[in-house]
Specification:
By secondary structure, the protein is an alpha/beta fold. The chain contains twelve helices and 14 strands. The longest helix has 23 residues. The structure holds NADP nicotinamide-adenine-dinucleotide phosphate. NADP nicotinamide-adenine-dinucleotide phosphate binds next to helix 1 and helix 12.
Length: about 375
C-alpha cells in the first residue's frame, strides 16, 4: 500500500485541499501520514479514518519512507527540505503548491485539464516532481484551454483583478478589518437621509489616509482602493506576478514556440476570486461564434456567459463564483483593433483551481499511474 505524507494541511491552501479530498472521498486505498512543523504528536485532521499523531515535517528519515509527499507548507519549507531529501537519494513523488520548484527542469507544472499530455509523458520519462501553477495563470488557462488547444492564439494581454487571498490568510482578514473601519466611521452619515455622498467620501478619504488605518500586511489601503503591484520587481519592469504569466503558461503547455502573455496585475478588494480582462490576438479572423464554441468546449468547468448585462452581473463576478469550481468566461466580443482581436473577462476561485484542485488531481493521477 502506498504511503503518502501530507505537509501543510492546516494552512489556507492545505485546508481547502483537505476539504476537497474529504468531499471527493479521496482518502482511501493508501496510508496517509500527516506532518507538522509546529505540533509534533498533536492531532491531525478529521478525515473519517484513524490516523497516527502528527509527525515531524523536518524528519528527513521519516519523510524518506513515503512514496509520495504532498506539501502546501510554503516555499521556505520546500527550499529547505526538498534538496535535503533528494540529496539523500529519496526517489519518491514530490507534489508541491509552492512556487519554489516551478521553473526547475526536474518539475512539471500541473493543471491536468489543460496539460494532461505533458503530465503523462513526463511521468513516463521518470519525472518525480509535480508543482501547482501560479493561481492567475492556472485560472487563465482553465478559462481559455479550448482556444489554446486550437493553436490560434498569437499572444494574450491579461489585466488582472486579484483577490486578497492570493496574498495569504492575514491579508484576507486585513481587508475585512479595513472595510469595518470604513463602515464604522461612516455609520452615522449613512443613517442620515440628508447626508451627501461627497460628505461620506471626504470622511472615507480621511480614514484611508489616517495613520491608524490597519495596513500592516498590505502596507496601504485595499478597501476603497486598489494596489497595482503584486510581488517583487523584475529587471523587465514587470512584477514577478506579471512575469509568471508568460513563463508559466509556456511551461505548462510545453509550447514549441512561446506564446507571449503579459499585462498588469492588480490587487482588488475581492476575497478569493481572481478576475482577468483578456485581450487575445488570434492568427486569423475566426468568426465569433466559433471562438465562443472553442472556449466552451475547453473543459467541463469552463462556462461561457452570454454577453448581456443580466448574465454578466449575475454570473461573472467574484460574489457569484466564490467557493465553486466553475470558471465562467464572458464579455466575449471582437475588438476595434481588428477582426483577429477578441476580448473576454473571466473569474475563478484562486484557492480551488488556483491552488488546491490541481494538487488534489495530480495526487490521484500519480496514484493511478503508479498502480497502473
Ligand atoms: P499558510 O496558510 O500560511 O499555511 C502554511 C503553514 O503555516 C501551515 O501549514 C501551518 O503549518 C502554519 N501555520 C501557522 N499558523 C497557522 C494558523 N494559524 N493556521 C493555519 N496554519 C498555520 O499558507 P498558504 O497560504 O496555504 O500557502 C501555502 C503555499 O501555497 C505557499 O507556498 C503559497 O505560495 C502557495 N500558494 C498559495 C496560494 C494562495 O492563494 N494562498 C495559491 C497558490 C499557491 P504547521 O501546521 O506545520 O504549523
Amino acid at each position: 500500500m502506498l504511503k503518502i505524507g501530507f505537509v501543510g494541511w492546516r494552512g489556507m491552501v492545505g485546508s481547502v485541499l483537505m476539504d476537497r479530498m474529504i468531499r471527493e472521498d479521496d482518502f482511501k486505498g493508501y496510508e496517509p501520514i500527516f506532518y507538522t512543523t509546529s505540533n509534533i504528536g498533536g492531532e491531525g485532521p478529521d478525515i473519517g479514518i484513524d490516523i497516527p499523531p502528527l509527525s515531524d515535517a523536518y524528519d528527513i528519515g521519516l519523510l524518506s519512507t513515503m512514496d509520495i509527499i504532498v506539501t502546501c507548507q510554503g516555499g521556505d519549507y520546500t527550499k529547505k527540505v526538498y534538496p535535503e531529501i533528494r540529496g539523500k537519494g529519496w526517489n519518491g513523488y514530490w507534489i508541491d503548491s509552492a512556487s519554489a520548484l516551478r521553473m526547475s527542469d526536474e518539475s512539471i507544472i500541473v493543471l491536468d485539464p489543460v496539460n494532461r499530455d505533458v503530465i503523462d509523458s513526463g511521468f513516463k520519462l521518470g519525472i518525480k516532481t509535480y508543482v501547482g501553477g501560479n493561481c492567475t495563470v492556472s485560472l487563465m488557462l482553465m478559462a481559455l484551454s479550448g482556444l489554446f488547444a486550437s493553436g490560434h492564439i498569437q499572444w494574450i494581454s491579461s489585466m488582472t483583478y486579484q483577490a486578497a487571498s492570493g496574498a495569504g490568510a492575514k491579508h484576507m482578514k486585513e481587508l475585512i478589518a479595513q472595510m469595518k473601519v470604513l463602515g464604522d466611521a461612516s455609520g452615522a452619515l449613512l443613517q442620515d437621509p440628508s447626508s451627501t455622498a461627497i460628505a461620506i467620501d471626504e470622511l472615507i478619504t480621511r480614514e484611508l489616509r489616517d495613520k491608524v488605518f490597519p495596513v500592516e500586511n498590505f502596507l496601504v489601503p485595499l478597501a476603497g482602493s486598489l494596489i497595482p503591484w503584486i510581488d517583487s520587481p523584475m529587471e523587465s519592469g514587470q512584477t514577478r506576478e506579471e512575469w509568471k504569466g508568460s513563463s508559466e503558461t509556456n511551461k505548462i503547455l510545453n509550447t514549441a514556440r512561446p506564446i507571449p502573455v503579459d499585462g498588469l496585475c492588480v490587487r482588488v478588494g475581492a476575497m478569493r476570486c481572481h478576475s482577468q480582462g483578456l485581450t487575445i490576438k488570434l492568427d486569423a479572423n475566426i468568426p465569433l461564434d466559433e471562438v465562443v464554441d472553442m472556449i466552451d468546449r475547453g473543459n467541463q468547468w469552463v462556462k461561457v456567459v452570454q454577453n448581456t448585462k443580466e448574465s454578466t452581473i449575475n454570473e461573472l463576478t467574484p460574489a457569484a463564483v466564490n467557493g465553486t469550481l466553475e470558471v465562467p468566461v464572458g464579455r466575449v466580443h471582437k475588438m476595434l483593433m481588428g477582426p483577429d482581436f477578441v476580448t473576454a473577462f473571466t473569474v475563478g476561485d484562486q484557492l480551488l483551481w488556483g491552488a488546491a484542485e490541481p494538487i488534489r488531481r495530480i495526487l490521484n493521477i500519480i496514484i493511478e499511474l503508479c498502480e497502473g
